[in-house]
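Changelog note: in this version the structure field was regenerated for every chain. One regenerated record is shown below for reference.
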Amino acid sequence: MAKLARTKESGTDRIRNGVLDLIQDLQFGDKLPTEEKLTALLNVSRPALREGLKQLEQEGVIDVVHGKGRFVAAGSALSIARPITKFESVTEMVATRGYETTTEVLGFGVVPANATDAADLGLAKGTPLLRIERLRRGNDAPLIYSVDLIPRHLLASTEPLSQDWTGSLVDLLDSQDLRPVASTAKISAVELPHGAVELYGLHDFGPALKIREICFTERGQRVVLAEVYHSGKAFAFSFVRR
């Protein structure tokens, strides 16, 4: 079997996805290949492999029997490819669903943090924030409306007006050693803000799943406050209840 090429995707994610692909050809109770075979197949180190397998064990996808190996668990039938708990940029998320999209920057500027946003970002009220308002379309249909707030001082060495804000904010922050890797989020079913609907002609957007999240770096620094509205016509998120 051919090795998988290395990509920017983390070793843990590639292991999880790779093992899930492997399990498609196995049955409940079947034994997984040895660590030696899996490291060769997935092209990862043994420590990284064990981290990925540990994640799958915690998800109930595999069982570990000490002295015998790892086996396909009953929970494998409940596994989902893109769990709602997985942290990923909007750019990544849209790409994995097969959409060919265009991104339009609807608005950009510097605004003072209100009390709620300041508290979420751990800042003083009035702290300058970069505000990026964007719309992503797929096949000319609106898919995602989003507003991102980034503390201005985090990008003090860059000229905001010269940036290409149509790309991934995660990648932009990564270039400043501020890559977000996790978030805390609140999810609600809503309509788009009335002002956005009227101003940008989004009357056909329909009901939306709104995710308001605070994004953190691996050092625990808060770098983005995002409100992302996913069109209910285009997206459905799944999760497993145990």
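Spot check on this record: Residues 11-23 form the longest helix (13 residues). Residues 1-8 have pLDDT under 50 and may be disordered.
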